[in-house]
Amino acid sequence: xxxxxxxxxxxxxxxxxxxxxxxxxxxxxxxxxxxxxxxxxxxxxxxxxxxxxxxxxxxxxxxxxxxxxxxxxxxxxxxxxxxxxxxxxxxxxxxxxxxxxxxxxxxxxxxxxxxxxxxxxxxxxxxxxxxxxxxxxxxxxxxxxxxxxxxxxxxxxxxxxxxxxxxxxxxxxxxxxxxxxxxxxxxxxxxxxxxxxxxxxxxxxxxxxxxxxxxxxxxxxxxxxxxxxxxxxxxxxxxxxxxxxxxxxxxxxxxxxxxxxxxxxxxxxxxxxxxxxxxxxxxxxxxxxxxxxxxxxxxxxxxxxxxxxxxxxxxxxxxxxxxxxxxxxxxx
Length: 332
Ligand SMILES: [Fe+2]
Ligand SMILES: [Fe+2]
Fold this sequence. Notes:
Blueprint: E1 9-14, H1 22-25, H2 39-53, H3 63-70, E2 76-79, H4 95-112, E3 116-118, H5 122-125, H6 139-148, E4 155-159, E5 162-167, H7 169-172, H8 186-205, E6 212-217, H9 223-227, H10 230-234, E7 239-244, H11 250-259, H12 270-280, E8 290-292, E9 306-312, E10 321-326
């Protein structure tokens, strides 16, 4: 990695580490298949996971060590969400997922200390499985993520005239996630969302005209909801880039551009409804100048993982310079 120019501040960005500790690894790489009763669907998901998405999901976290060996001197590090494999599907209230996320964050904090900022991903709080309909969002996971893991739902970091902001996409996009939540927990989720949006509005309202924003938002499904906020939409010209994760590969971002605006499909289950509803609104992603930071391990088909560094001019006279660092997995 080239040395940091003396007049620049370098920030490293990584996302979707999906680390698995010993308790998650003990569940075996086919943990998701066991939640699918229909043999045909199981065969389809097995094929997709094996050849396209991730053959051995519980070993992808090994890329964290590769990253830690590879990374050179940096001033700040942003981890953009999804720290465990969430193999219990309920987020970090599952002890095994909690152990994974703690180990993952522990390694990053040991190395980078106060220089590290962490965004919350959807897998910290849980989500329904793709096909099996198991699991979902749990308030117990929210409490554990914020209290025991120390994840801040909203963070900001000033670098001269740059303001780096981290938001929680699962709260912002909560209306799209209602089927994932337990009915008795819904009112509390709504309160958390209202407080989060109030914080975001106040921060965008307080921006000075000379400030430039780099926004960190794990799941782009949140962006159309942010777009509906006047405080945010007024400041869109000041958002230089929005760094998302969650999609794991640029292939999905490219497909999202192609399929942007399609009507939501409501009769093929929750996952298809959620995905197509997100695509229906995807034309609101692009004004945020979206840049995908892929999963650290990429996907099986393309082995396209890696991380970014961005060099910032604190005066914000020159645009942020992003560099992608591929980190291909060694095939076993
Ligand atoms: Fe992820
Ligand atoms: Fe995610």
